[in-house]
Amino acid sequence: MPPSHQLAILSRRSFHSHRLVSSRPVPLAKYDVNSLRRVSSAAAAQPQYAQNVLAAGGKSALTPSPLSDEQKRFLDSALRVNQAGELAAVLIYSAQTPPIVRTHPHLLQLMKHMYDQEAGHYKTFNEILVKHRVRPTVMYPLWKAAATTLGWSTAVMGREAAMACTEAVETEIGDHYNSQIRVLLDWAADLEAKGEDFGPEMKELLATLRRIRDEELEHLDHAVMNDAKEAKPYELLTNVIRGGCRAAIWISERV
Amino acid sequence: MPPRLLRLSLHFLSARPAARLTRTTPHYPPRPIPTSTSSPRAYHAYDRPTPPPYPPTETAILTAALGRVPAHGFSKTALALGARDAGYLPVSTNLFPAGEMELVKFWCTKARLGLGGTVEKEGLPEGGVRGRVKELVRRRLRMNVEGGVVGRWGEAIALMAHPTYAPTALAELSRLADEILFLAGDASLDSAWYAKRAALAGVYAAAETFQTQDTSPGCVDTERFARERLGDVESLGKAFGDVGEWVEFTVHGVLNGLRSKGVRL
Predict the structure, then answer these.
(1) Any idea where the Ubiquinone biosynthesis protein COQ9 HTH domain is (chain B) (predicted)?
(2) What is the pLDDT of residue B263?
C-alpha cells in the first residue's frame, strides 16, 4: 500500500475511532475528506496532474491533451474499416442464410444468432462514424456486391464451405480488432505515464472493440464446430478469402 | 534494351529508394502529413480539446488584416497593414508563404468554425436535415455580408481559382460542406455521404459567385438563389437513393421468385 493511502486510513481512524474495532476493509473512497486527501497526495506526486487540477479550478481532476494528428488518422481509418467490415459481415450472413437453411434447417438458429450480432455491430459503428465525423469508405457499393457474392457462392458450395468462409473472415477480423485494441492500450499506457486519464470516449471505444472482438471470435468457434475444416479445397478457399479480406482492409483504410 | 528505356528504368531505380527513405517512421495509414495549420478532417473527439486552427501570432495578424479587407481587398497590403495593426513589423507577413491566399483561407476557416457558434447561440430550426441545411447555408452567406468581405469576395474567388491554390480552396469548400451537414445532423453513411457533400459544395460555390454580383440589400437575392438550388439538390439526391432502393428490391424479388419455383439459390 502506498504511504499516502496508509496516511489516509490512519487519519480516518482518528476521526472515526469506533471503526478501529471493525476488521472489515473500509472502502477508501467512501468519505469525502479522505478522497480529497487522496487527490491532493496524487497531485503532489505528479506535477502535470496538479497543474491540471489547478487549471480546472479544482473541479475536474483532468485536462486531457488533444489527440495528435497521427492518432486522429489512425482512428479515422480504423473506424472506417470496422464499419465496412461489419457491413460486409451482415451481407455475407444474409446471403448465406437461405441456401444453408434450405439444406440444413437445424442451422437456422445459429445463422440468425450470428446475423443479429453482426447487425448490432454494424449499427454501433454507424453511430460511431456519424458521431465522430468519420467518412465512410468510397468502395461502399463495391464491398456490398463483393460480400453478397462471397456469402452466396460459399453457401451454394455447401455447409462446410460456408463455415470455412466464416472461419477465414472472422480470423482476419479478429486479428484486425486485436491490433486496434493493442494500439489503444499503448495510448492508454502513455497517458497514464503522463498522469492523464484516457477519457470516457476512448474507454468506451476500447470496451466496444473488445466486446465485438469477442463476439467475432465466438463466430469463429461456431464455424470450426460446424466442420469448417472439412471444406473440400480448405487451404485454397480460406487463403483466398483471407487474402481478399486483407486487401479490402488495406483499401478501406486509405479510401 | 534501347537506350531510352534504359535511361527511363535507371531514372526509376534512382528515384524509388529516395522516395522510400522519406518514409522511415511507420505511421498508419501512410499518408503525407498535411502542411496546412488547420487540422485535417478526421476523427472528431468530444472529451479532448481541439487545438485552434492557427497559432496566436498568426491569428492576431490575420484578424487585424481582415479589418483592412473592405478598404484594401484580399491583398499583400491588407496583410502588411494587419501586421502593423497587431503590433508586428510589416515583414512578419513572411509568416504566410501563401500571402493573400492565407487571408482568404483564414476567413473561410473562421466563418466555418463560426457556424457551430451560431448553432450554440441561436439553435437550429426543427423539422429535418433539409431545413437545417438551408438555414446554415443562409447563415454562412450572411457572414460574408456581416464580415464586410462581400464587396471584395470576387478577388478571393479569383485567387481560389488559381491553379496553385485550387486544391486548398476545394479542400476548404469540402470542409464547409461537411461542417454544414454535420451540424444539420445528417446521418447518411454510404455513397450518399459523398453525393450530398459534393452537391452542397457545388450549390454553395455557385451562391458565393452569385453573391459577388448581388446588389440587393443584405444580399437577399443570393439567399433566395441558394434556397432554390438546394431544392434542386434534394430532388436529385432523392432520385439517387430511390434508384438504389429499386434495384435492391427488384433483385431480391427476382431471387425470391426463383427460390419459390424451387431453384436452388
Answers:
(1) 61-83
(2) 78
Nearest to A73 among B42, B45, B264 (CB): B42
Q: What is the DSSP letter of B31?
A: -
ipTM of this predicted structure: 0.73
Chain A: residue nearest B265 by CA?
Answer: A99
C-alpha to C-alpha distance for B168 and B231, rounded to whole angstroms: 28
Per CB-CB distance under 8 Å, the chain A contacts of B40 are: 69, 72-73
Residue found under cell 477519457: A199
Collect all residues from B whose CB is shorter than 8 A from any CB in A. 27-29, 31, 33-34, 39-51, 178, 182, 187, 189-191, 193-194, 259, 264-265
Convert chain A into a string of H (helix), E (strand) and C (coil).
CCHHHHHHHHHHHHHCHHHHHCCCCCCHHHCHHHHHHHHHHHHHHCHHHHHHHHHCCCCCCCCCCCCCHHHHHHHHHHHHHHHHHHHHHHHHHHHHHHHHHHHCHHHHHHHHHHHHHHHHHHHHHHHHHHHCCCCCCCCHHHHHHHHHHHHHHHHHHCHHHHHHHHHHHHHHHHHHHHHHHHHHHHHHHHHHHCCCCCCHHHHHHHHHHHHHHHHHHHHHHHHHHCCHHHCCCHHHHHHHHHHHHHHHHHHHHHC
User: Which of A91, A130, A127, A84 lies closest to A250 in space, CA to CA?
Assistant: A84
pLDDT, tens digit, for every residue of B195-214? 889 999 999 999 999 999 98
Q: Which three cell numbers mark A191?
A: 497517458
Query: What are the binding residues of A?
Result: 86, 118, 121, 170, 216, 219
Burial class (CB within 10 angstroms; exposed 0-12, middle 13-18, buried 19+) of B32: exposed
In chain B, % of residues over pLDDT 90 = 41
Please judge whether A66 and B259 are an interchain contact, meaning their C-beta atoms are less than 8 angstroms apart. no
pLDDT tens-digit readout, A134-163: 999 999 989 999 999 999 999 999 899 999
Sign of CA dihedral B48, B52, B53, B55: negative
Of A31-45, B48-62, B144-158, give the lowest mean pLDDT range.
A31-45
A75 vs A65: CA distance, rounded Å: 16
* Cβ–Cβ gap B40/A72 under 8 Å: yes
**Which of A76, A130, A140 has its CB closest to that of B43?**
A76
How far is the CA of B230 from the CAs of B54, B88, B144, B197, B233, in angstroms?
Answer: 32, 44, 19, 12, 5
The C-alpha angle with vertex A13 and arms to A12 and A16, in degrees rounded to 5, equals 85
Length of chain A: 255
